[in-house]
Amino acid sequence: MFNFNLPSRRQFLQNAGLGFGSLALADILHQDALASPTDATNPLAPRTPDFAPKVKSIIWLFMTGGPSQVDTWDYKPELQKRDGQDLAGADPKTGFFSTSGKCLKSPFEWKQHGQSGSWVSDLFPHLSQHVDKMTFLHSMHLRQNNHAPASIELMCGTNRPGLPALGAWQTYGLGSANQNLPSYVVMHETRPRGDDQIWSAGFLPKSYQALALDARRNEAIDNLARDAKHSDLQQRAQLDLIQQLNQEHAAGRPTQADLAARINSFELAYRMQMAAPEAIDLTKETAATHKAYGLDQPHCATFARQCLISRRLVERGVRFVQIFAGKGVGGDGSVNDVPWDCHTDVQTNHRSCGLYTDQPAAALLADLAARGLLESTLVIWGGEFGRTSDSQGAKGRDHNPNGFTIWLAGAGVKGGFHYGATDEFGYKARIDKVHVNDLHATLLRMLGLEHTKLTYRFNGRDFRLTDVAGEVITDILA
Predict the structure, then answer these.
(1) 351 and 343 in contact (C-beta within 8 Å)?
(2) Which terminus, N or C, of the chain has the lesser number of Cβ atoms within 10 Å?
(3) 25-43: string of b/e by CB count within 10 Å (b at 16+)?
(4) What stretch of H or E contains 455?
């Protein structure tokens, strides 16, 4: 007897083709899952670096708004001499608005400090005492000339939405050194331009996203406190049941990388209920420490608190801490979320911002050094770009991504060392230019990671923090 329900040749070929397509898709998804070096049951498990690291933790003091290099760390006598004269090579497209094309000298006093004789303006009476701990990168440059795009480029390597930031890549590559705390913490007073995109985990599993702490909120960490109706025993039983159900759910979905992140987040939050409040409890610090950081000074108390918390976090194994400095400290009518943005009056603006950040940042360096933590912690200071050497209006400066200074201090770098240079007016990077891809490659090397090997497969392509560029700046390595 014939079976008249057998498929036709066309139907057979169509179904077979779809089947082979499904096999190919399954293989691609499987390879994507294998691209992550994580333990599926604990994405934050510590991992072995590619080679011996010089740095265990990074604290990045992000000077939101863009400090002027020629008013802070990059002294230019020629700019002082030619105040009001035409600026050679002035480009009206450099900034975000328009500038005069006339040189604007720095209104601050400059002196040399330390055995290195490093020039520092009088904005930093406290930080100037630590120049022999610092490596200055005077030839930084970016492609973007507005706050959000430049901040994203600086932290993510290129200005494209959805990319992971440096802190997320570091956590992905190394895991966490403390299973009771997040490995990546961001602190801010207001959200800077670009906000979450600057510290995003992007396409990486959400286990590597930052814990963001808002200084304005009384509850330091949202949704962490245990429900008062539940005892610890009840909460533990509840979590065990949730974990069992989640793991059964995940077992049938091995290619969904974020499932492990969601499952792990329950356990991390439970462990953080004890560890996190203790880590950010500054009542355990001495009165002398509070005073050294400036917690008793209204003009810098918030930034002081954030700097002291950052020391306590790295002391407990947090790998990456980033502080976005300030709210409304500019003093010249600048928008609150970009305090170093000196479009109107660089003297008024930078004096206020220096007062807000100088003492706490210097106290952080001194405290880390006194505790032996600076031997394993790298501190970074800088904004998303610099400022123009010609004036905007009469006394302000516009954005300038073509040449600016970032300094690094502590583990992994030479002290009192100056790398690269801008031109004689401080306008454009000229010698040993450093793009953020080079900076990231260098930071990853100090962390023990080879930047060309730290990749993650997404949408069929291997991505890395340094994109297809980046050279390690070996000259600055200690």
Answers:
(1) no
(2) N
(3) eeeeeeebbeebebebebb
(4) strand 455-458
**Per the domain annotation, does 105 fall within a domain?**
yes
Q: Phi and psi at residue 332, in whole multiples of 5°? A: -125, 25
Q: Report the pLDDT value the prediction gives residue 196, as an integer from 0 to 100.
A: 84
Tokens describing residue 183: 């490995």
The answer to whether residue 394 sits within a structural domain is yes
Q: What is the pLDDT of residue 42?
A: 79
**Does residue 235 sit within a domain?**
yes
Judgement on whether residues 338 and 207 belong to the same structural domain of the protein: yes
Token match 């002027």: residue?
68
In the prediction, which pLDDT does 239 show? 58
Q: How many domains does the chain have?
A: 2
Answer yes or no: do 128 and 77 share one domain.
yes
Domain of 418, in residue numbers: 46-220+280-476
| pLDDT at res. 118 | 98
Give 414-428 pLDDT, tens digit per residue: 999 999 999 999 999
Buried b (16+ CB within 10 A) or exposed e, 176-190: bbbbbbbbbbbbbbb
Query: Which residues touch 24 (CB under 8 Å, ≥6 apart)?
Result: none
